[in-house]
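Person: Please comment on this record:
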Amino acid sequence: MGKVKARKSDDPEGVKRKENAKMQLKRNIGYFDGVSFIIGSIVGAGIFVSPTGVLKHSLLNVGVALTIWTASGLVSLMGALCYAELGTALPFSGGEYSHIKRGLGSLPAFVFIWTSTFTKPASNAARALLFAEYATQPFYGICPAPEVLKKCLALAVLWSLGILNGRSVKMAAWVQTVFTLLKMLALSVIAVGGVVLLAAGRKESLARFEDAFSSEIPNASQVAEAFFQGLYAYGGWWSLNYMAEEMKNPSRNIPLTVMTAVPAVIVFYLLVNISYLTVLTPKEIVSSVAVAVTWADRVIPSVAWIIPLSVAVSIFGALNSSVFTLGRLSYAGSQSGHLPVLISMLNVHSCTPAPAMIFSTTIASIFIIPSDLITLTNYFGFSAWLMIGLTCASLIVLRYREPHLHRPYKVFLPIPFVMVAMSFFLVLAPIVWSPNLQYVYAFLFMLGSLVVYLPFIHFKLHFAFLDKITCHLQLLLEVCPAEESAEGKCE
């Protein structure tokens, strides 16, 4: 007897199940998760340990320093609003990479991902090592902790977060929310402590703020250097766009998240700096190895140990956020054909970009083992602002080239022009003022991306044996391409 073939319309429920079973990133990140990721990305160890750069380059002028902290925050907010427009109009994973590719083309996007594939994992490695430093030092007192122990702990933390982010977006978001709340609680202790002391009316503290601008006024180059330091402290405001594809209701939540998180950080940074200046003199702040610890020793000596613990918690939260976003960058690059195809595949059980997480975590691990490699990436700092400038330029290009693109949120058009101008100033200024041969090496490394781009991307050179390796790894990791139907439904 012949078999009867079922028509598509015979089983509408089965069709619905197949559509639901498609492999794609799920929209699991809500408003509060987004706020946690942005704040967690911005607030690391810096505000606890060394918020001295702005004050130092402001020539210990309290008024100028606080003004620069505010201005740096407002510039960061302007950049975040530009990114909010791009994130709502083009809600894809990959952040700047996806926007540069859409606005400026494939080659600039490849230069971005080529550079980021090395600099961002190096940053994660540095964070992991710093966490290990703070986590192990209390057990060794005044003696330094063994390097092997710190590296082993850094690798353990890095891979724990890599596995967590590769298995469950909801769990990664929950961890991010918890650690963001803990670090903000620690900042609240410092901020509220300072406000209370200031309200108590200590004469020397009040005099410091009443004559805030009475000290020597820094010149233009010193103000610019202080501005660099302030902007560095706000770094991470761009992180939300890396997870735009996984945001619930991105048209509403992306702008709302940005307008909540970045102003909140500005307010906390100002309050914390005012608290430091209430308790310590500008000279004491600049000479302190860990400002928050010195503050705690004077204000809350009986529980001063919570500050080193808070620093470790803050670093851990920032690392989790960075691991999450870096995986999405690798995933987006692979989807566009700029990285091996395996990296864009999703786990058939969790619908997470597990291969991308493995890829980015492996590169970060390489930087940890011979940690001297991390110092090589210090001269790539200018590349971050170069890519921000290119991203804001992409926004301007898309406004004119694709005027009918649906934009749920539109930033005031002069803002991206200001951001482009400022970005290129921040790229060129350190190179002009402090020329160094290492900047040339960094620039040549970025140009070196052409050696890979031309044969493998432009001319599409391909080796057949890589398909077999991809197939075996696909079976081993239990992954399949995004948008492809799977037998099991993602949860």
About this structure: Confidence is low (pLDDT under 50) at residues 1-20, 484-491.
